[in-house]
Specification:
The chain is α/β, with parallel strands linked by helices and about 325 residues long. The chain is about 40% helix and about 15% strand.
């Protein structure tokens, strides 16, 4: 008899259970692997699948993670360029896509990514028709819309990582200036993940103390303390990190793991993530923008109706117009 048969006597009628919290990450670049490692270190899945077209890199990343299995609580880590490896995923994180070339318009970049996503999304849905999708690839709001269109999934199961990271950067920078921990400063950045994002100064508070009551001009041009610089630094921070190290990956990886936790643990926590906003705040186009969303096992179970000022609503609409200007010219959706 073999060592295995001598070592373990199987119980009659017992069989291996399928994974219940399988997470797939599409794309094993810097962002994809930061998402994968962050999810593993928080024990959020019982199986992790990785997919990429670069087979050697993919196999290397899989082996490297498998060799760390002793220090993790995820028993199964698999990888393949064939999407069959993703079958039965509860959550699929999409980080794949082409990068913007020098001088390339955003429309052209998005159109090239549409062509990439046409190869990815139908395959994901074929093998995991009941999954929830988190889109991370940039420009994330437009590509979340693209994913929604290509997947045929209901809107509550297609989520963009959106301004969850922008809000984290905002809370970190504001907390530093205020001398408190980031979790103790409550502030939201909504709208587009990027240049037209909207800081909600009207809701910024510490322990319920509204900062606008302490300084009615906070965040405006009239503010003598110049707090609006904090949001400018939030917008510029990704460019600065890219300039310094070539890419951003750790913060977005941690941000995606945070969203993953709310979904797989059915927490109903509120996150600023990209969702279909048609009909809200006077926006009539089918665009995805970040609003405070309740995330649980169903995906987005609801959107918090934030009391925004007229100025903040106007900025949101401007965000929507920027995105619609790109989306309306997309082909082959």
């Amino acid at each position: 008899m073999s060592v295995l048969k001598n070592l373990i006597s199987p119980l009659e009628g017992s069989s291996a259970e399928p994974s219940r919290n399988k997470v797939t990450v599409i794309g094993v670049g810097q962002v994809g692997m930061a998402c994968a490692v962050s999810i593993l270190l928080r024990d959020l899945c019982d199986e992790l699948a990785l997919v990429d077209v670069m087979e050697d890199r993919l196999k290397g990343e899989m082996m490297d993670l498998q060799h760390g299995s002793l220090f993790l609580k995820t028993s199964k880590i698999v990888a393949d360029k064939d999407y069959e490896v993703t079958a039965g995923s509860r959550l699929v994180v999409v980080t794949a896509g082409v990068r913007q070339q020098e001088g390339e318009s955003r429309l052209n970049l998005v159109q090239r990514n549409v062509n990439v996503f046409k190869c990815i999304i139908p395959q994901v849905i074929k093998y995991s028709p009941n999954c929830t999708l988190i889109v991370v690839s940039n420009p994330v709001d437009v590509l979340t819309y693209v994913t929604w269109k290509l997947s045929g999934l209901p809107k509550h199961r297609v989520i963009g990582s959106g301004t969850n990271l922008d809000s984290a950067r905002f809370r970190h920078m504001m907390a530093e200036k205020l001398g408190v921990h980031a979790t103790s400063f409550n502030g939201w950045v909504l709208g587009e993940h990027g240049d037209t994002s909207v800081p909600v100064w009207s809701g910024a508070n510490v322990a319920g103390v509204n900062l606008q009551r302490l300084n009615s001009d906070i965040g405006t041009d009239a503010d003598k303390e110049d707090w609006k610089t904090v949001h400018k630094n939030v917008v510029d921070s990704a460019y600065e990190v890219i300039k310094l190290k070539g890419y951003t990956n750790w913060a977005i990886g941690l941000s995606v793991a945070d969203l993953t936790e709310s979904i797989v643990k059915n927490l109903s926590r509120v996150h600023p993530v990209s969702t279909l906003v048609k009909g809200k705040y006077g926006i009539m186009e089918e665009v995805f923008l970040s609003l405070p969303c309740v995330l649980n096992a169903s995906g987005v179970s609801g959107v918090v109706n934030m009391a925004l000022t007229d100025g903040e609503v106007a900025q949101l609409k401007k965000s929507a117009d920027t995105l619609w200007g790109i989306q309306k010219d997309l082909k082959d959706l």
